[in-house]
Amino acid sequence: MARSDCYPWTEAAFDAFFSSKDRQAHAYLLAGQSGLGKTVLAEQLAKAMLCQQQVDDACGECHSCRLLESGNHPDLHVLQSEKRTVEVNDLFAIYAPRYLEDESKRKRRKKPSAIIAIDQVRGVIPDINTRPHLSACRIIVLNAAEDLNINAANSLLKSLEEPPSDCFFLLISHEPGRLLPTLRSRCNRIDFRTPDKAQTLEWLNKQLPGRTDTARLIDSAKGIPLRALALADGEINTDESRVFQAMHKLANRQTDPVTAAAELIKKSELIEILTLLQIMTSTIIRLKIAARNGSAVEKDENKALIDLGKRLNFKQLYTFLDDLSESKQLAGGPLDDTLALESGLISWQRMFSK
User: What is the pTM of this model?
Assistant: First the structure.
């Protein structure tokens, strides 16, 4: 993928990375919401840095570029969760299985693991400390770095503190607040923000020629371009609707937290559920603020959230949001996922009894 293949809103980040004379920091953190193109930009940067032509773009023709596209480049190393590897079919999913657990062990689990475990980090450390096999450097990618459990994150710290001069780290994070501060502090940060709506609309119209509802798709996707495209293609699963229905039923005493938690955990990971709860709660807060300022627009897709928000105050909502953040920090620890979710759902239902 070349510079010309960048998403319009990531072109500046790509150019800045290679135009800076002191760009040779050893670690970069690509941070922002999911759906803003961080993973694609990380692919672009890795290809350009590994290209044998040593220019600020991947030539696509050298031996290194051809090997990378085929999934066989010896100097690209990817750590990501088993769940992401199974569910997302991209370049990094081709490289990630090298550091996953043995397939026989993975088959014993009911669901693919949603964490990056310490054994994966231990597995890549020897590759960090060897010379590049083909290119001028090695690239270590941590895709969704917030999936690192605490032991894996601590194990990675030493490598980030004292890496070889020809080794570079690309950490992709959809939730950088969940990373250890010591990890964040060792990285040059590239922030991804929601692009201007006009730019997103222009891009989406090119992807969906003939569609007349692109502006509505962007609104439904909260301005996030790749999420809007996924909505149009019907690729977004029903996790969001399942979570909302559960919360709506809990608010109206149509179900109980134990039943709701059991049903949600059957089909989704705890982290994903907590993330959706955060999005829903943040949206309710935003709609309440807009209503208070007289700028609310009651679109059909927002009506149910507005109705829930009318029954809650800001203190309750912000407290619940803080509790969700704390729960996400503990996710993947010793506490059973279902029990952890039950606790959060109990708090949600109690807010509607006050």
Answer: 0.74
